[in-house]
Amino acid sequence: MNDLIYDAVIVGAGPTGLACGIELERRGLKCVILEKGCLTNSLYNYPTHMTFFTTPELLEIGDIPMTSLNEKPTRTEALKYYRRVADHYKLNIRQYERVLSIDGVDGDFSIPTMDRMHVARVLRTKKVILATGYYDVPNLLNVPGENLPKVAHYYKEPHPYFDQDVLVVGAKNSAAIAALELFWTGARVTLVHRGKEIHRHVKYWIKPNIENRIAAGEVKAYFETTVQEIREKEVVLNTPEGQLTIPNDFVFAMVGYTPDWKFLNLAGITLDSETGRPRTDPQTLESERKGVYLAGVIVAGMHTNEIFIENGRFHGKQIAEGIAADLH
Fold first, then answer.
1. Looking at the whole model, is its pTM more than 0.85?
2. Are 195 and 165 in contact (CB under 8 A)?
3. Are residues 21 and 97 located together in one domain of the fold?
4. Which site from 56, 194, 216, 226 is most exposed, i.e. has the minimal number of CB atoms within 10 Å?
5. How confident is the model at residue 303 (pLDDT cuts 50, 70, 90)?
6. Which of 227, 253, 279 is the last residue of a domain?
7. Residue 12 is part of a domain; what is its CATH number?
8. 302 lies in which domain range?
9. DSSP code per residue over 109-137
10. How many CB atoms lie within 10 A of CB 198?
11. How far apart are the C-alpha atoms of 295 and 177, rounded to whole Å?
12. Residue 19, Cβ neighbours under 10 Å: how many?
């Protein structure tokens, strides 16, 4: 048992978790940030050459300016920026340490953890902040063959798929970007989507590009279509014209992600049955489990398109003010 008692343990070292840590430290509160992966693990897992939707100043935390070579920052620039912020504030971040549960009560929580060397620890804390994001649990197709090694739910870069038959499932930003990059790199790309067209919210500079590639026949697209089965060298599709089998080497199932509801439920977080939103105090973001606060996209429940880094970063100040008022 670690005798040190923290004012707060923050679960998740993404931009929102870092913002919470900064705001707590500013108020003289002692905290530690636990991250089961690397610093800003979700951003790290974004496509290698991804460009953000937004401008640099809207990704800033801790009053540290962010700059980029172009109008919109890249993934690489964002990773460098958040490393710099963490170093500037000397935040106490423990990477590759997974939180197993949240035990105890407000003012006296016990947090058992396990690091990548399988060393078990227990931290004691007065408050807990969950800033776990939504990128860790991919939505599944739930079809035979989805567990084959050739199936991926995250896309990084296109080079390994040159001269290969690649299926991309989905029609939002991630799927559209993956399909285009794979096509430009010499893959034979087929895109499948259960809807009637490319999603209307795809980035304005991406949407016409993928639509033009489809219109030219350079990317084959099947709309109002689902995957029936994934096999070693082919996939079976359910199209409006009937079942179709096509050659296939790799599958990218880009159909979205969800917060880790299982972990949240084990942590005692209750959700609205219709929206999936956890019940929180609108001022402090304290959940119904007293002493446990929620930050970032998990506050939005199933509506993950409502909260991004741009607005989730402000949760740190809300939460820190609530905790400081309670502890002082």
1. yes
2. no
3. yes
4. 216
5. low
6. 253
7. 3.50.50.60
8. 5-136+257-327
9. EEEEEEETT--EEEEEEEEEEE---S-SE
10. 24
11. 28
12. 27
